[in-house]
Amino acid sequence: MADPIISFQDYGFQYMAQAAPTLHHINLDIYPGEKVLIAGTSGSGKSTIGSCINGLIPFAYPGKKTGTLLVGGKEPDKSSIFELSHTVGTVLQDTDGQFIGLTVGEDIAFAPENNCVPQDEMKELVNRVAKLVDIDHHLEYAPHELSGGQKQRVSLAGVMVEDVKALLFDEPLANLDPAAGRATIELIDMVHERTGAAIIIIEHRLEDVLWRSMDRIVLMDEGRIIADMPVAALLSGRALIEHGIREPLYLTALRYAGVEISEKMHPEHVEKLLLAEEDKEKVRNWYQAQKSQVSRREAGEELLRVEHLDFGYTAGQRTLQDVSFAVHKGEMVSIVGRNGAGKSTLAKLICGFETPLSGTILMENRDLSGDTIKERAASIGYVMQNPNQMISKPMIWDEVEMALVQSGMPKEERKERVEETLRVCGLYPFRNWPVSALSFGQKKRVTIASILVQRPRMIILDEPTAGQDYRHYTEIMDFLKGLNEQGYTILMITHDMHLMLEYTPRAIVFSEGRMLADTTAAHVLNDPDLVRAANLKETSLYTLSMACGIDEPQTFTECFIGYEQKEVR
Amino acid sequence: MARIAILSYIKRDSFVHGLTGRTKLVFFLAWSVASMVTYDTRVLVCMLLFSIAIFRASRIRVRDISFVLGLAAVFLFMNNLFVYLFSPEYGVGLYQSRTLLFTIAGPYTVTLQQLFYHLNMTMKVVCVVPIALLFIACTDPSEFASSLASIGVSYRIGYSVSLALRYIPDIQREYHNISQAQQARGIDLSGKDKLLTRMKNSVAILLPLVLSSLNRIETVSNAMELRGFGRNRKRTWYNLRRMQRSDWIVAILAVVILAVDLLVTFWDGSRYYNPFL
Question: What is the pLDDT of residues A488-506, one digit of tens each?
């Protein structure tokens, strides 16, 4: 076998600002043309490994290393970040941040510009690489004119111009809707075929990455490599679940049904799955046993009603068209659809940030059109996607108290209210802490607390779990579910299909500013037409149930969710 | 989202747009020097007419840039006002004659010479402003950095200008989002509150904005380094256009204008054209 492109030998690393090492005893070789997935929870050290490979460590993030690391046969600290960029191309998680040029062509040309490639040669190079990722018809486009998936293509082209030997993807799926995420994985696979470069993907959304085959998975936890083995072997064991990574849904369903998962079954992809007749029988039996227990909750009184809402940011163009629906007290509803379908705009209209062109929004049968943002905030709370965009006080208590101070509530009453809210949110022990001491998930709680303190009737959350690994996702969602059980009505904007399926019985589907459906979450993902129109992705449970000869995939999905909620938690 | 009408590139098809960024930069610099140096009314009138002609040729409409024009007008007025307040008879000394029209109060007299001085001062600004605005409105931002670099400015500086242009819309959008979310928490920015409260309130928006901008800067600078920015002393440009014949003509014209301007202005040994003697 050829020499590895990247080789870690008993490698350890400690960031300068940290008290303990982030990586311990890493032994990892990556060979030319390999496809490797590095999986792990946030804080497992997987991103640090990425930074070691592309040279951000030690050049942008200095620290102390032990052991050796060779990238392209050289030690990074004796080379330079520039020299490394000829060997390893990095596609960062934030494709907006990575988009440096003002147009697609310029952005792809950024690296050759820095290498002083003559202009004629550069134009040719840009055209060739743009063709490779099918973005050659958009060379004149500005970043804001592109979709998330297209930006990803540009980022990819921008590192491929260097003719690199390895491509490193840092959480490539984090900001994409399901269909765009799937397209990204296909794109990566295509680039792999066309260029033969080694592919390294750092990601915790396992099932989505495995849409195309990978050679092996490196599982990390607490700065160590837990497993480094072929995909099928890892999926057969329980290591993933034990280390906070969600395994593909169809495998979980098989385990619930009592099926033993082995390498021979080809567990890496639901379409390739080989199930023995007795295993299918087990799944069918489990399904029959569960089916009788599916129950639906009764809806309460009507809380919010939206009628014939129309809206556009500029004249002549409609971001939302004829949207009507109602939300009942105590409901937990998902609003789903591709990026740019109008989901966030809907939330802004409900909160009064924007004014509809026509149509009405009623809260408990009262028209809200005359109410200001502040007045609406008393009944509808809005939580932004990124907690860092909301937190404006250094101390937790002050942050949560802020809205009450603004409303002029007396101090005694405020104290009582804040304490109660902090208890509800599990933040009471931290009440005197600075916000900066908290984890991302805890910060999210602080922002939710700062909204709950106003005692709204309903909370709208924008992508509550974006970028979170399974552990933190579960933590945030269980918290929200708890709030819901206490009577809060919750509306969530999301493109996370698992979230929709597991936590919200009902989903409203948007596409191109129109409401496509208002139905059960399980129905959405088992209706192929709806899935395609809204840029979603059917669940692998659908395929599994078909393979087992169960022709009611929707009920099968509902059984799965019901079972999970009852038996597992 | 409310579009804030600040100055930015306006894409049109015109002769001015067709020139390379480099040509426009050279013309703009020569033009600014020319109008800064001279107080010669004859020269200023010619330049004024010429700048109006160029403005027409650019197909940029006055209302496209009305906000910035208004801002320039306010500054111009303030400038005139303060010059008058501090020395109401400056023109008299300058033109060495005094034709009193009337007196407002005390030392504040109105003389023909002072009015003539103000007219010249105003014309100087009126000559430069349209050309400066055109330079920004008609130059593709992608060409900014390369044209700055082509006249010898370090490409790092040129690139920071161009990056600022790239990220301003993103940061505006973010500011808008943050301020809406904060308003929903009772922070009022509409001006009903006292100034001190309002200042305190704007911190509630600025703090998250600054923190997220710092994050963004870290990402961008990492992304740039990972793609070799700063490796060499020079770099090439994807978007640098070659000088066409029209570019050379305009560039030479700029130099000629500047030369004529200096010649006429200093011919009689003074920057001022004096009709009173």
Answer: 999 999 888 888 888 898 9
Q: What pTM value is reported for the model?
A: 0.83
Q: Is the dihedral of CA B50, B54, B56, B61 positive or negative?
A: negative
* CA A142/CA A220 separation, integer angstroms: 38
Note the pLDDT of residue B2: 38
What is the rounded distance in angstroms from the CA atom of residue A471 to the CA atom of residue A204? 11
The Cα B30–Cα B39 span in angstroms is 16
Asked if residues A101 and A107 have their Cβ atoms less than 8 Å apart, the reply is: yes
Amino acid identity for residue A190 in this structure: M
| A296 interfaces chain B, CB cutoff of 8 Å | no
Residue of B nearest to A90 (CA): B226
Q: Model confidence at B202, in pLDDT bands (50, 70, 90)? A: confident
> pLDDT averaged over chain B?
86
> What local confidence, expressed as pLDDT, does residue B3 receive?
44
User: pLDDT tens-digit profile of A45-84?
Assistant: 998 999 999 999 898 899 999 999 999 999 998 888 888 8
How close B30 gets to chain A, by Cα (Å)? 28
Query: What is the token pair recorded at A222?
Result: 């607490």
B269: pLDDT strictly greater than 80? no
CB contacts < 8 A, A to B, total: 158
pLDDT value at residue A422? 92
Q: State whether A119 and B222 contact (CB < 8 Å).
A: no
**What are residue A22's phi and psi, to 5 degrees?**
-90, -30
Distant-in-sequence, close-in-space partners of B58: CB < 8 Å, separation ≥ 6: B12, B14, B15, B16, B17, B134, B137, B138
Beta-bridge mates of residue A66: A12
B217: contact with A, CB 8 A cutoff: no
- pLDDT at residue B4, rounded to an integer: 45
* Nearest-5° Cα angle at A532, A526 to A537: 55
Look at residue A196 and tell me whether its pLDDT is greater than 70. yes
Q: Report the residue of A52, A90, A100, A452 to disrupt the B interface, i.e. the one with the largest count of B CBs within 10 Å.
A: A100
Reading the block at residue B240, the tokens are: 């640098």
Neighbours of B134 (CB within 10 A): 24
Scan residues 156-195 of A and list those with Cβ closer than 8 Å to B. 158-159, 162
Going by pLDDT thresholds of 50, 70 and 90, the confidence category of residue A119 is very high
- Measured between alpha carbons, how far is B214 from B163 in angstroms, rounded to an integer? 14
Give dist(CA B47, CA A525) in Å, integer.
68
Q: Nearest CB to A110: which of B207, B208, B227?
A: B227
Best of B226, B232, B234 to disrupt the A interface by mutation (most A CBs within 10 Å)? B226
The dihedral built from the CA positions of residue A415, A416, A417 and A419, taken in this order, carries a sign that is positive
Distance CA B105, CA B91 (A): 18
pLDDT at A389 over 50: yes
Distance from CA of A558 to the nearest CA of B (A): 35
Per-residue model confidence (pLDDT) at position B203: 80
- Which 3 state secondary structure label does DSSP give A489? strand
- Cβ of residue A59 closer than 8 Å to a chain B Cβ: yes
CB-CB under 8 Å, A60 with B225:
yes
Q: Do A389 and B231 count as a contact with CB atoms less than 8 A apart? A: no
Q: What ipTM was reported for this prediction?
A: 0.79
How much is the average pLDDT of B200-205? 79
Q: What are the chain B neighbours of A62 within 8 Å (beta carbons)?
A: none
Three-class secondary structure of residue A496 per DSSP: coil
Residues of chain A contacting residue B166, judged by C-beta atoms under 8 Å apart: 100-102, 143
| Residue A505 DSSP code | S
Looking at this protein, which amino acid is placed at residue A46? K
Question: Chain A contacts of B225, Cβ < 8 Å?
Answer: 56, 59-60, 81-82
A118 touches chain B (CB under 8 A): yes
Task: Find all residues with CB under 8 Å of B190, minimum gap 6, and list them.
Answer: none
